[in-house]
Amino acid sequence: MDRRCIAIFDSGLGGLTVVRAIQQRLPADDLVYFGDTARVPYGSKSKETVTRFAREICDFLLRFDPKLIVFACNTASAAALPSLRPHISVPTVGVVMPGARAAVERAGNGTIAVIATESTINSDAYRTAMRSLNPQVRVIQKPCPLFVPLAEEGRSADDPIVRAVVQDYLQPLVALGPQAMVLGCTHYPILREAIAAACGPTVELIDSAEQTAQQVYADLAATNGLRTEDRRGKLTCYVSDNPQRFRELGQRFLQQSIVDVTWVAPERFHADEARPVS
């Protein structure tokens, strides 16, 4: 048994959907989460910039001596994880391969749609991952850059603006008849009802958060790293800007209150102290 924490990070609030899924799978584990709220969104930034951000955050999270780091950001998983993984001293899990694997299993040789940020789509990470599992699979992709700011603004799935944007983005994809659609950004589950309404009942939505939690469980089980005590793990959150807003909006993603939030400015990632927020 390994009592060290699990570290998780995302560009903002979306990774809290991964936190929620991990809490359900591994309720005894302590979790440390970092949301880069000062620099969100990552999806329109270059691969080099996203890699630099991810490297800085991993350096910060390693101060907590985690047993594993989860890249709970599709953009960072696609753009940064492959090059950073050999240089990180603890195991890492991204969100791309778990979601890709679930989509291939459920769609077979059918068509899979992927919706994600511009950077994730441009990386072609999902298509590459899916074709490594099934070379015959057909993958269609669509960047949906407005989804992240809509989710970060706290707009609900039944908001008329959300419905209109979702319909505009997804109508061309749905017309191509996919069997499954990967929500290739951890912010997107907040808009799931609107996405499901636009897709109809014939398209199965794949939430990479749950698939990632399953991967974390499997990886820790394989190395005797599961924490099996009868306890409720603690969640500690760090953000690079606006902790009060993170606390308020984060409840929608996590579906529970967030108590422990600490502000850490990006230029202080390597410093020895952070500023707690009561």
Describe this structure in words.
With 278 residues, this protein is an alpha/beta fold. The chain folds into two domains: 6-94 and 211-277, Rossmann fold (3-Layer(aba) Sandwich), CATH 3.40.50.1860; 96-208, Rossmann fold. Helix content is 42%, strand content 17%. The protein has twelve helices and eleven strands. It is globular and about 50 Å long. It starts with 5 loop residues before the first strand and ends with a strand. Residues 273-278 have low confidence and may be disordered.
Q: What structural class do helix, strand and pairing data support?
A: alpha/beta
Provide a count of the helices: 12
The spatial strand order of the largest sheet comes to 4-3-1-2-9-10-11
Which radius of gyration do the C-alpha atoms yield?
Answer: 18 Å
What is the CA–CA distance across the termini? 32 Å
The helix content is 40-55%
Shape: globular
Predict the CATH topology of the largest domain: Rossmann fold
For the residues shown, what is the average pLDDT? 92
| Spans where pLDDT lies below 50 across 5 or more residues | 273-278
From the coordinates shown, what is the CATH architecture of the largest domain?
Answer: 3-Layer(aba) Sandwich
Number of separate structural domains: 2
Taken as a percent bin, the fraction of beta residues is 15-25%
Q: For the record, what CATH class of the largest domain applies? A: Alpha Beta
Task: Offer a quick outline of the entry.
The chain has 278 residues and is of the alpha/beta class.
